[in-house]
Structure to design on (338 residues):
């Protein structure tokens, strides 16, 4: 168990937040100058038409801040007045968030340069996500074998304090978690500040879990992400001056998946990230219903658009989803504590 002091709790968050705000004031006009602007799909809510031309790829801003704060703070921390090197968890976390961010960047870049809604094809995106997941698994396996970790392929059953040994079945589970989470966060990104706020609560749950586990690396990484997203909300809250794009949403999903794997809370992730799960299920249910019955369950999917079309304002939907995410995060922490 590692002691995490108050200074270590607050400093990375504040620096990450200030970094995003400072960089954002210069980088957002640069995105406008490059004409990296969001394309709005014609089938969406009519109120979104006014968002045409808003800069996208803003995820680059908070990814830069996460890297610049998590790397130095996660690599060395003062323990008993001595600098101690933190384990390989930091590399895995940064690899996941940055590699998925790079995949999203390619998708966004194709969209803005070609002036269309479709960037990478579905197969290209899935292939990229799977390859990243495989590399992540290979590094994880190599490190854990070197560390003689006998719990590599175990998962904890939430609320039962029971560990299930999956052996090599853990690989498909890990790939499902990484691909599924990155896609789920990506689907949720549709309203100003929606993903930013929801992700703050999800990462907040993992910051607390890292704190209670005494895992300095997990704690610092999660707080760096939280600080970066708080800074990003200065520009992304309604009415948004910039969108995070797939650059940001895929990266945030990859980071959450990596946190779940490292903290051995893989089966808690659907609860902590409950909003992302519900949004994804709304799309799946809508597609299945339309194909089988030629009828739609929701007025529009993902679910946040359904509430918009019911007459709720964008701000009401966003704040409501934030509140739901807060309670999901509390539920996840509660189950983990058993």
């Amino acid at each position: 168990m590692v002691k995490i002091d108050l200074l270590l709790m607050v400093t990375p968050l504040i620096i990450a937040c200030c970094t995003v705000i400072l960089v954002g004031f210069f980088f957002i006009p640069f995105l406008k100058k490059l004409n990296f602007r969001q394309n709005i799909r014609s089938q969406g809510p009519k109120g979104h038409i006014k968002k045409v031309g808003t800069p996208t790829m803003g995820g680059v801003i908070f990814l830069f801040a996460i890297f610049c704060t998590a790397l130095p703070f996660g690599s060395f921390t003062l323990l008993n007045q001595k600098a101690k090197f933190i384990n390989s968890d930091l590399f895995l976390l940064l690899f996941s968030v940055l590699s998925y961010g790079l995949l999203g960047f390619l998708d966004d870049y194709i969209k803005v340069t070609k002036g269309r809604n479709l960037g990478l094809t579905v197969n290209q995106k899935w292939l990229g996500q799977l390859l990243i997941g495989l590399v992540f698994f290979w590094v994880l396996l190599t490190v854990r074998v070197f560390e003689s970790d006998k719990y590599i392929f175990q998962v904890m059953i939430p609320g039962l304090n029971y560990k299930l040994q999956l052996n090599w079945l853990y690989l498909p589970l890990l790939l499902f978690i990484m691909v599924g989470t990155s896609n789920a966060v990506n689907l949720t990104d549709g309203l100003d500040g929606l993903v930013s706020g929801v992700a703050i609560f999800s990462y907040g749950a993992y910051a607390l879990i890292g704190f209670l586990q005494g895992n300095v690396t997990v704690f610092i990484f999660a707080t760096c992400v939280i600080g970066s997203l708080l800074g990003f909300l200065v520009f992304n809250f309604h009415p948004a001056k910039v969108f995070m794009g797939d650059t940001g949403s895929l990266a945030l999903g990859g980071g959450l998946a990596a946190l779940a794997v490292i903290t051995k809370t893989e089966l808690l992730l659907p609860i902590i990230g409950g909003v992302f799960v519900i949004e994804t299920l709304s799309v799946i249910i809508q597609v299945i219903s339309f194909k089988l019955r030629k009828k739609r369950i929701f007025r529009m999917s993902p679910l946040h658009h359904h509430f918009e079309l019911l007459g709720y304002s964008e701000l009401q939907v966003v704040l409501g989803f934030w509140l739901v995410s807060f309670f999901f995060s509390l539920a996840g922490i509660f189950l983990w504590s058993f």
